[in-house]
Amino acid sequence: xxxxxxxxxxxxxxxxxxxxxxxxxxxxxxxxxxxxxxxxxxxxxxxxxxxxxxxxxxxxxxxxxxxxxxxxxxxxxxxxxxxxxxxxxxxxxxxxxxxxxxxxxxxxxxxxxxxxxxxxxxxxxxxxxxxxxxxxxxxxxx
Length: 142
Known about the structure:
This protein is α+β, with helices and mostly antiparallel strands.
């Protein structure tokens, strides 16, 4: 579909107006001392998080985090040594990866949770020979 020059100009104006109301990255760096990625926003706010909490950066070494490129719009961060990208609006919403990746991370964390009740249940199951076997589903014969 072809757009008229007026339609393109109107779309560009809408995008610029929207972007002017959106926080954008003006600087980004890896702070080795704190072990955090630090992003300075045009609003004066600063956000920082552990690289291991972001999809694509979980196994990154400090030297791979040293180079960070900010997209022209200020909405994206690119890590050339990792070929990884982060989307700033997602970071601001607390989304450090895709929904699937975040769910897997939450599940992994939940599986590591320990409590007195969980430890006691594990001991009881161990005395009985371990986790009970799942019973196969047997369809009704009727």
